[in-house]
Design brief:
By secondary structure, this protein is α/β, with parallel strands linked by helices. Helix content is about 40%, strand content about 25%. The chain starts with a strand and ends in an 8-residue tail after the last helix. It binds adenosine-5'-triphosphate and magnesium ion.
Length: about 260
Amino acid sequence: MLLELRGVSRRFGGLQAVADLSMTVARSAIHGLIGPNGAGKSTVFNLITGVIPLTTGQIFFKGDRTSGLRPSEICRRGIARTFQATTLFREYTVLQNVLVAAHLAAAPGLASALFWSRAYREREQRARERGQALLDGLGLGSVAGRVAGTLPHRDQKALALAMVLATGAELVILDEPMAGLAEQEKAETTSVLRRLRGDGVTVLLVEHDMKAVMGVCDTVTVLDHGLRIAEGTPREIQTNPAVIEAYLGAEEPGA
Ligand SMILES: Nc1ncnc2c1ncn2[C@@H]1O[C@H](COP(=O)(O)OP(=O)(O)OP(=O)(O)O)[C@@H](O)[C@H]1O
Ligand SMILES: [Mg+2]
């Protein structure tokens, strides 16, 4: 297994946002985390990536404990994420956004940058080539030079994904990558996720679009009021009475 949560809890004042959650994410899987609004999904992502501290429990990545580490250290170890609200450097070009993401993960030596060494220039050139190839693969190749803030919504979503991939992370955590996308764009995102899995990248996914979740995930974990109420294959989840109950009045868990 790649990621393990052991008895993870998080309180916000009197609110138990995540309650004694244990779950594992298998390597090279697409693992969905679903649940009604306020179930605690984004909080789980914030706990895994170290953005907020755990109230109780432990998190392990590749067998090493990561809970308690700083977000930058967790990212360096191979976990990267997108946020539910897309966060881009809006005034930078598309390619610059990808390069920044790659640099933040690699943290190249400041000294070599200051002296503008040959090795540094070559590394920069390679990074640009890799960045361009990544953008090509996500259908953003032709807009690499555009200022990110001027892109249409679907391209901004794709760019957020490109930035996560640019870090070279083994575990990619995506918060609602399909939100606001048209059917065709969702299908494209789905095929990108499958391609990632084929490349050995593990995906942990929060997504409200049940058709997309059920179509792409190998395993689905369901949260409700911070509690894990079910886990299984999409087929098992769609017929699970507790899941259907949790979604009543909220939305349909599938179809
Ligand atoms: N920083 C915070 N401070 C206080 N309460 C918070 C904080 N973050 C989340 N919460 C609360 O914790 C609960 C879980 O929120 P969370 O954002 O994890 O839900 P979610 O499952 O991602 O919901 P959605 O599907 O709407 O994105 C909610 O009741 C929310 O209001
Ligand atoms: Mg959320």
